Write the C-alpha coordinates for this entry.
Amino acid sequence: MTLLYVSTVLLWIAVVALSLLLFALARQIGILHERIAPLGALMLDQGPKVGEPAPLFELPDILGRPVRLGGKRDRATLLLFASSTCPVCKKVLPIAKALAREEGLDLVMVGDESPEALKRFAEANGLGEHTVINAPEVGRSYRIGKIPYAVLIDREGAIRAKGLVNSREHLESLVEAYRLGVASIQDFLAEGGKRWKV
Amino acid sequence: MIDPLVQWIPRLGLGLIFLLSGLSKLLDREAFRQGLRHYRLLPASLEAPVSVAVPSLELLGALLLLVRPEKGGLLILGLLALFSMAIFWGLGQGGGFNCGCLGGIEEPLSPWLFLRNGLLGLLAVPTLLPATPRPLTAADLVVVGLGSLFVLFAYLGLSLLLANAVRLSELRRS
Protein backbone atom coordinates (compact mmCIF):
# COMPACT_ATOMS: atom_id res chain seq x y z
CA MET A 1 0.00 0.00 0.00
CA THR A 2 2.82 2.41 0.87
CA LEU A 3 4.28 1.92 -2.60
CA LEU A 4 0.93 2.85 -4.17
CA TYR A 5 0.58 5.97 -2.03
CA VAL A 6 4.12 7.12 -2.72
CA SER A 7 4.02 6.41 -6.43
CA THR A 8 0.60 8.12 -6.82
CA VAL A 9 1.81 11.26 -5.08
CA LEU A 10 5.03 11.25 -7.13
CA LEU A 11 3.04 10.89 -10.35
CA TRP A 12 0.79 13.77 -9.36
CA ILE A 13 3.85 15.92 -8.70
CA ALA A 14 5.11 14.99 -12.17
CA VAL A 15 1.73 15.84 -13.73
CA VAL A 16 1.66 19.26 -12.05
CA ALA A 17 5.26 19.92 -13.15
CA LEU A 18 4.39 18.96 -16.74
CA SER A 19 1.32 21.19 -16.80
CA LEU A 20 3.49 24.05 -15.50
CA LEU A 21 5.97 23.37 -18.31
CA LEU A 22 3.12 23.39 -20.85
CA PHE A 23 1.93 26.72 -19.46
CA ALA A 24 5.44 28.22 -19.65
CA LEU A 25 5.91 26.93 -23.19
CA ALA A 26 2.58 28.35 -24.39
CA ARG A 27 3.47 31.69 -22.75
CA GLN A 28 6.80 31.78 -24.61
CA ILE A 29 5.08 31.08 -27.92
CA GLY A 30 2.66 33.93 -27.16
CA ILE A 31 5.57 36.33 -26.55
CA LEU A 32 7.19 35.23 -29.83
CA HIS A 33 3.92 35.92 -31.67
CA GLU A 34 3.82 39.42 -30.19
CA ARG A 35 7.37 40.09 -31.34
CA ILE A 36 7.24 38.79 -34.90
CA ALA A 37 3.85 39.84 -36.23
CA PRO A 38 3.63 41.63 -38.59
CA LEU A 39 7.04 41.47 -40.22
CA GLY A 40 8.44 44.91 -40.99
CA ALA A 41 6.72 47.93 -42.44
CA LEU A 42 4.00 47.01 -44.89
CA MET A 43 4.79 48.49 -48.29
CA LEU A 44 1.73 49.41 -50.30
CA ASP A 45 2.82 49.02 -53.87
CA GLN A 46 1.85 52.42 -55.17
CA GLY A 47 3.53 55.68 -56.04
CA PRO A 48 7.20 56.14 -56.99
CA LYS A 49 9.16 52.90 -56.63
CA VAL A 50 12.13 52.23 -54.39
CA GLY A 51 15.31 53.18 -56.26
CA GLU A 52 13.61 55.91 -58.27
CA PRO A 53 14.39 59.58 -57.58
CA ALA A 54 12.06 61.18 -55.05
CA PRO A 55 9.67 63.78 -56.52
CA LEU A 56 11.08 67.31 -56.21
CA PHE A 57 9.20 69.87 -54.16
CA GLU A 58 10.02 73.41 -53.08
CA LEU A 59 7.46 74.68 -50.59
CA PRO A 60 7.17 76.56 -47.31
CA ASP A 61 6.90 74.75 -43.98
CA ILE A 62 4.25 75.65 -41.38
CA LEU A 63 6.48 78.48 -40.10
CA GLY A 64 6.90 79.90 -43.61
CA ARG A 65 10.53 78.77 -44.12
CA PRO A 66 11.37 77.37 -47.57
CA VAL A 67 11.86 73.59 -47.70
CA ARG A 68 13.26 71.50 -50.52
CA LEU A 69 12.28 67.83 -50.78
CA GLY A 70 14.18 65.44 -53.06
CA GLY A 71 17.45 66.09 -54.86
CA LYS A 72 20.98 66.00 -53.37
CA ARG A 73 21.28 66.74 -49.65
CA ASP A 74 23.85 66.47 -46.86
CA ARG A 75 21.81 63.92 -44.94
CA ALA A 76 19.24 61.26 -45.72
CA THR A 77 15.61 62.33 -45.18
CA LEU A 78 12.83 60.48 -43.40
CA LEU A 79 9.46 61.68 -44.67
CA LEU A 80 6.65 60.88 -42.27
CA PHE A 81 3.11 61.29 -43.54
CA ALA A 82 0.94 61.81 -40.48
CA SER A 83 -2.05 63.70 -39.12
CA SER A 84 -3.04 65.23 -35.80
CA THR A 85 -6.23 63.15 -35.83
CA CYS A 86 -4.63 59.70 -36.03
CA PRO A 87 -3.76 58.07 -32.69
CA VAL A 88 -1.08 55.76 -34.15
CA CYS A 89 0.73 58.83 -35.55
CA LYS A 90 1.03 60.21 -32.00
CA LYS A 91 2.60 56.94 -30.92
CA VAL A 92 4.97 56.75 -33.89
CA LEU A 93 6.17 60.39 -33.80
CA PRO A 94 8.47 60.14 -30.75
CA ILE A 95 9.90 56.90 -32.18
CA ALA A 96 10.55 58.62 -35.52
CA LYS A 97 12.24 61.50 -33.68
CA ALA A 98 14.49 59.10 -31.76
CA LEU A 99 15.32 57.14 -34.91
CA ALA A 100 16.18 60.34 -36.81
CA ARG A 101 18.53 61.34 -33.99
CA GLU A 102 20.17 57.89 -33.74
CA GLU A 103 20.62 57.46 -37.48
CA GLY A 104 21.40 61.08 -38.36
CA LEU A 105 18.35 61.59 -40.58
CA ASP A 106 16.43 64.77 -41.33
CA LEU A 107 12.86 64.17 -40.17
CA VAL A 108 10.16 65.89 -42.22
CA MET A 109 6.54 65.46 -41.19
CA VAL A 110 4.05 65.95 -43.99
CA GLY A 111 0.45 66.72 -43.08
CA ASP A 112 -2.74 67.26 -45.01
CA GLU A 113 -5.11 69.30 -42.84
CA SER A 114 -5.69 72.81 -41.53
CA PRO A 115 -2.37 74.66 -40.89
CA GLU A 116 -3.54 75.71 -37.40
CA ALA A 117 -4.28 72.14 -36.31
CA LEU A 118 -0.93 70.98 -37.68
CA LYS A 119 0.89 73.82 -35.90
CA ARG A 120 -0.74 72.89 -32.59
CA PHE A 121 0.10 69.22 -33.18
CA ALA A 122 3.76 70.05 -33.95
CA GLU A 123 4.04 72.15 -30.78
CA ALA A 124 2.36 69.53 -28.59
CA ASN A 125 4.68 66.81 -29.90
CA GLY A 126 7.92 68.81 -29.67
CA LEU A 127 8.64 68.92 -33.39
CA GLY A 128 10.37 72.31 -33.04
CA GLU A 129 13.75 71.21 -34.41
CA HIS A 130 12.23 69.18 -37.24
CA THR A 131 10.50 70.34 -40.39
CA VAL A 132 6.71 70.18 -40.60
CA ILE A 133 4.97 70.94 -43.87
CA ASN A 134 1.31 71.01 -44.76
CA ALA A 135 1.28 69.75 -48.33
CA PRO A 136 -1.49 67.56 -49.77
CA GLU A 137 0.38 67.59 -53.13
CA VAL A 138 3.32 65.68 -51.60
CA GLY A 139 0.96 63.00 -50.26
CA ARG A 140 -0.70 62.75 -53.67
CA SER A 141 2.62 62.37 -55.51
CA TYR A 142 3.59 59.46 -53.23
CA ARG A 143 0.02 58.08 -53.46
CA ILE A 144 -0.37 57.86 -49.71
CA GLY A 145 -3.61 56.07 -48.81
CA LYS A 146 -2.92 55.12 -45.21
CA ILE A 147 -1.01 56.89 -42.46
CA PRO A 148 1.40 56.90 -40.65
CA TYR A 149 3.44 56.22 -43.78
CA ALA A 150 7.21 56.77 -43.95
CA VAL A 151 9.58 57.20 -46.90
CA LEU A 152 13.36 57.10 -46.58
CA ILE A 153 15.22 59.24 -49.16
CA ASP A 154 19.02 58.92 -49.41
CA ARG A 155 21.54 61.76 -49.86
CA GLU A 156 21.40 61.42 -53.62
CA GLY A 157 17.65 62.04 -53.58
CA ALA A 158 16.60 58.46 -54.38
CA ILE A 159 13.85 56.63 -52.51
CA ARG A 160 15.50 53.86 -50.48
CA ALA A 161 12.62 52.36 -48.47
CA LYS A 162 8.99 53.13 -47.70
CA GLY A 163 6.00 51.64 -45.96
CA LEU A 164 3.16 51.90 -43.50
CA VAL A 165 4.73 52.31 -40.06
CA ASN A 166 2.77 51.43 -36.93
CA SER A 167 5.61 50.65 -34.53
CA ARG A 168 9.29 51.06 -33.76
CA GLU A 169 9.99 47.74 -35.49
CA HIS A 170 8.35 49.01 -38.68
CA LEU A 171 10.33 52.25 -38.69
CA GLU A 172 13.59 50.44 -37.94
CA SER A 173 12.80 47.98 -40.72
CA LEU A 174 12.95 50.87 -43.22
CA VAL A 175 16.49 51.75 -42.12
CA GLU A 176 17.40 48.04 -42.11
CA ALA A 177 15.99 47.60 -45.62
CA TYR A 178 18.08 50.59 -46.75
CA ARG A 179 21.24 49.10 -45.21
CA LEU A 180 20.60 45.66 -46.68
CA GLY A 181 19.90 47.19 -50.08
CA VAL A 182 16.41 45.71 -50.47
CA ALA A 183 13.14 47.52 -51.12
CA SER A 184 11.43 46.22 -47.99
CA ILE A 185 11.94 43.61 -45.31
CA GLN A 186 9.17 41.60 -47.02
CA ASP A 187 11.27 41.51 -50.20
CA PHE A 188 14.28 40.43 -48.18
CA LEU A 189 12.36 37.59 -46.56
CA ALA A 190 10.85 36.55 -49.87
CA GLU A 191 14.30 36.43 -51.50
CA GLY A 192 15.81 34.75 -48.46
CA GLY A 193 13.06 32.17 -48.63
CA LYS A 194 14.12 31.25 -52.16
CA ARG A 195 17.81 31.24 -51.46
CA TRP A 196 18.09 29.73 -48.01
CA LYS A 197 14.65 28.26 -47.31
CA VAL A 198 14.04 30.32 -44.20
CA MET B 1 -22.26 8.32 -5.76
CA ILE B 2 -18.73 9.27 -6.68
CA ASP B 3 -15.49 9.02 -4.76
CA PRO B 4 -14.73 12.21 -2.80
CA LEU B 5 -11.44 12.56 -4.70
CA VAL B 6 -13.33 12.73 -8.01
CA GLN B 7 -15.45 15.50 -6.53
CA TRP B 8 -12.76 17.43 -4.68
CA ILE B 9 -10.20 17.76 -7.49
CA PRO B 10 -12.51 19.53 -10.00
CA ARG B 11 -14.20 21.40 -7.14
CA LEU B 12 -10.98 22.94 -5.85
CA GLY B 13 -9.52 23.31 -9.38
CA LEU B 14 -12.61 25.16 -10.63
CA GLY B 15 -12.53 27.28 -7.47
CA LEU B 16 -8.91 28.28 -8.20
CA ILE B 17 -9.75 29.09 -11.85
CA PHE B 18 -12.68 31.34 -10.89
CA LEU B 19 -10.70 32.92 -8.06
CA LEU B 20 -7.99 33.88 -10.58
CA SER B 21 -10.53 34.97 -13.18
CA GLY B 22 -12.45 37.17 -10.72
CA LEU B 23 -9.32 38.70 -9.20
CA SER B 24 -7.73 39.44 -12.59
CA LYS B 25 -10.87 41.38 -13.59
CA LEU B 26 -11.21 43.26 -10.30
CA LEU B 27 -7.53 44.23 -10.20
CA ASP B 28 -7.63 45.62 -13.75
CA ARG B 29 -11.18 46.96 -13.85
CA GLU B 30 -10.50 49.51 -16.59
CA ALA B 31 -9.25 46.79 -18.95
CA PHE B 32 -12.31 44.64 -18.20
CA ARG B 33 -14.63 47.62 -18.79
CA GLN B 34 -13.04 48.20 -22.17
CA GLY B 35 -13.37 44.49 -22.87
CA LEU B 36 -17.10 44.74 -22.12
CA ARG B 37 -17.42 47.76 -24.42
CA HIS B 38 -16.09 45.71 -27.37
CA TYR B 39 -19.06 43.35 -27.06
CA ARG B 40 -21.49 46.28 -27.65
CA LEU B 41 -23.95 44.41 -25.48
CA LEU B 42 -24.58 46.89 -22.69
CA PRO B 43 -25.58 50.56 -22.54
CA ALA B 44 -22.69 52.75 -21.31
CA SER B 45 -24.42 53.39 -17.97
CA LEU B 46 -24.38 49.67 -17.12
CA GLU B 47 -20.71 49.05 -17.98
CA ALA B 48 -19.37 50.21 -14.61
CA PRO B 49 -21.77 48.17 -12.40
CA VAL B 50 -21.44 45.05 -14.59
CA SER B 51 -17.64 45.31 -14.55
CA VAL B 52 -17.84 44.88 -10.75
CA ALA B 53 -20.77 42.46 -10.65
CA VAL B 54 -19.28 39.82 -13.00
CA PRO B 55 -15.97 39.33 -11.13
CA SER B 56 -17.82 39.48 -7.79
CA LEU B 57 -20.12 36.65 -8.91
CA GLU B 58 -17.06 34.69 -10.05
CA LEU B 59 -15.44 35.11 -6.62
CA LEU B 60 -18.75 34.17 -4.95
CA GLY B 61 -18.88 31.04 -7.13
CA ALA B 62 -15.31 30.10 -6.11
CA LEU B 63 -16.19 30.57 -2.42
CA LEU B 64 -19.50 28.66 -2.67
CA LEU B 65 -17.69 25.72 -4.29
CA LEU B 66 -15.79 25.26 -1.03
CA VAL B 67 -18.73 25.54 1.37
CA ARG B 68 -21.85 24.66 -0.70
CA PRO B 69 -20.60 22.73 -3.72
CA GLU B 70 -24.03 22.26 -5.40
CA LYS B 71 -24.90 25.96 -5.21
CA GLY B 72 -21.40 26.96 -6.30
CA GLY B 73 -21.52 24.50 -9.21
CA LEU B 74 -24.90 25.81 -10.37
CA LEU B 75 -23.78 29.44 -10.12
CA ILE B 76 -20.66 28.65 -12.17
CA LEU B 77 -22.66 26.76 -14.79
CA GLY B 78 -24.96 29.79 -15.03
CA LEU B 79 -22.00 32.16 -15.43
CA LEU B 80 -20.44 29.91 -18.10
CA ALA B 81 -23.73 29.87 -20.03
CA LEU B 82 -23.88 33.68 -19.78
CA PHE B 83 -20.26 34.06 -20.97
CA SER B 84 -20.86 31.66 -23.86
CA MET B 85 -23.87 33.70 -24.97
CA ALA B 86 -21.79 36.90 -24.79
CA ILE B 87 -19.05 35.24 -26.87
CA PHE B 88 -21.65 34.04 -29.39
CA TRP B 89 -22.97 37.61 -29.65
CA GLY B 90 -19.45 39.03 -29.94
CA LEU B 91 -18.56 36.60 -32.74
CA GLY B 92 -21.83 37.55 -34.47
CA GLN B 93 -20.68 41.18 -34.37
CA GLY B 94 -17.57 40.15 -36.29
CA GLY B 95 -15.28 39.37 -33.34
CA GLY B 96 -11.68 40.51 -33.70
CA PHE B 97 -11.31 41.77 -30.15
CA ASN B 98 -10.01 40.61 -26.80
CA CYS B 99 -12.42 38.25 -25.01
CA GLY B 100 -11.83 39.87 -21.60
CA CYS B 101 -12.10 36.44 -19.98
CA LEU B 102 -9.00 37.06 -17.85
CA GLY B 103 -9.15 40.85 -17.35
CA GLY B 104 -6.64 42.66 -19.51
CA ILE B 105 -4.82 39.51 -20.63
CA GLU B 106 -4.76 39.26 -24.42
CA GLU B 107 -7.10 36.47 -25.55
CA PRO B 108 -8.70 36.98 -28.97
CA LEU B 109 -12.36 36.02 -29.30
CA SER B 110 -12.73 32.70 -31.16
CA PRO B 111 -15.15 29.76 -31.40
CA TRP B 112 -12.56 27.71 -29.45
CA LEU B 113 -13.70 29.52 -26.33
CA PHE B 114 -16.94 27.48 -26.47
CA LEU B 115 -14.81 24.35 -26.16
CA ARG B 116 -13.02 25.81 -23.17
CA ASN B 117 -16.27 26.84 -21.50
CA GLY B 118 -17.66 23.38 -22.24
CA LEU B 119 -14.68 21.75 -20.49
CA LEU B 120 -15.13 24.06 -17.51
CA GLY B 121 -18.81 23.11 -17.46
CA LEU B 122 -17.85 19.40 -17.37
CA LEU B 123 -15.64 20.16 -14.36
CA ALA B 124 -18.67 21.60 -12.57
CA VAL B 125 -20.71 18.39 -12.99
CA PRO B 126 -19.01 16.34 -10.19
CA THR B 127 -19.73 19.17 -7.74
CA LEU B 128 -23.48 18.55 -8.27
CA LEU B 129 -23.21 14.80 -7.53
CA PRO B 130 -23.22 13.29 -4.03
CA ALA B 131 -19.88 11.89 -2.82
CA THR B 132 -19.40 8.61 -0.93
CA PRO B 133 -18.80 9.41 2.72
CA ARG B 134 -15.30 8.16 3.52
CA PRO B 135 -12.63 9.72 5.70
CA LEU B 136 -9.94 11.55 3.72
CA THR B 137 -6.40 10.46 4.52
CA ALA B 138 -3.31 12.62 4.33
CA ALA B 139 -2.47 11.09 0.95
CA ASP B 140 -5.95 12.05 -0.31
CA LEU B 141 -5.35 15.65 0.72
CA VAL B 142 -2.01 15.75 -1.09
CA VAL B 143 -3.61 14.33 -4.23
CA VAL B 144 -6.49 16.85 -4.01
CA GLY B 145 -4.02 19.73 -3.66
CA LEU B 146 -1.80 18.63 -6.54
CA GLY B 147 -4.75 17.59 -8.71
CA SER B 148 -6.44 20.98 -8.35
CA LEU B 149 -3.17 22.73 -9.22
CA PHE B 150 -3.00 20.54 -12.32
CA VAL B 151 -6.54 21.63 -13.29
CA LEU B 152 -5.53 25.29 -12.90
CA PHE B 153 -2.31 25.05 -14.94
CA ALA B 154 -3.96 22.90 -17.61
CA TYR B 155 -6.66 25.59 -17.94
CA LEU B 156 -4.09 28.40 -18.21
CA GLY B 157 -1.99 26.41 -20.69
CA LEU B 158 -5.05 25.64 -22.81
CA SER B 159 -6.12 29.32 -22.77
CA LEU B 160 -2.68 30.43 -23.96
CA LEU B 161 -2.61 27.78 -26.68
CA LEU B 162 -6.05 28.91 -27.91
CA ALA B 163 -4.88 32.54 -27.99
CA ASN B 164 -1.74 31.48 -29.88
CA ALA B 165 -3.78 29.43 -32.36
CA VAL B 166 -5.77 32.54 -33.33
CA ARG B 167 -2.56 34.58 -33.73
CA LEU B 168 -0.95 31.83 -35.78
CA SER B 169 -3.87 31.71 -38.21
CA GLU B 170 -3.68 35.53 -38.54
CA LEU B 171 0.05 35.23 -39.27
CA ARG B 172 -0.60 32.58 -41.92
CA ARG B 173 -3.16 34.81 -43.62
CA SER B 174 -0.88 37.88 -43.65
Remarks:
- Chain A touches chain B through 20 residues (CB under 8 Å).
- The two ends of chain A are 55 Å apart (CA to CA).
- Confidence is low (pLDDT under 50) at residues 193-198 of chain A.
